[in-house]
Amino acid sequence: MASVTPSGSLEPDNTDPVRQSPDEGTGFVSDAEGITRVALPAGKHISSALAQSAAQVAAQLAAGKPRPVMVDITGILSIDREARNLIGRATSASAVAIVGSSPVDRVVGNFILGAEPPDFPVQFFSAAAEALLWLDRYRDGT
User: Fold this and answer.
1) Domains of the chain (ranges, CATH numbers)
2) How close are the terminal C-alpha atoms of the chain, in Å?
């Protein structure tokens, strides 16, 4: 399982099946207890290519079955429109929790929430623990 830092971001540990996205510096995607966790890299602009890379790894982990996804945006600089829209089109998601800890993260999260309306619930959280509790109800793909 990934551990949550005091700031609310995720850090993988040795028991978490973690897959690095293909490009260096794109954060990580992990799968633990039926929830896919995507940590986008702090201090970077999130392009559609970077988001697509993380989405492909998340889809592989889902293995064709929609599942809850937590996307940690803590500390990202910005996210482009196509990257925001990718979240709304995630075919491997039954629900998406967006996690960020600062006021800037909340603004970025609101841009993501305002993108293409998804076919599944999406919500912003300031703490990973809250997000995981909310996502727990979507583990069976409902």
Assistant:
1) 23-136 (3.30.750.24)
2) 23
d(CA 133, CA 142): 15
Task: Tell me the β-bridge partners of 141.
Answer: none
Q: Is 6 helix (H, G, I), strand (E, B) or coil?
A: coil
Find the angle CA(38)-CA(42)-CA(43) to the nearest 5 degrees: 150
What pTM was computed for the model?
0.77
Q: Are 33 and 66 in contact (CB under 8 A)?
A: no
Q: What's the CA gap between 36 and 59, in Å, rounded?
A: 9
Write the pLDDT tens digit of every residue in 64-114: 888 999 999 999 998 888 888 887 777 788 999 999 999 989 988 888 887
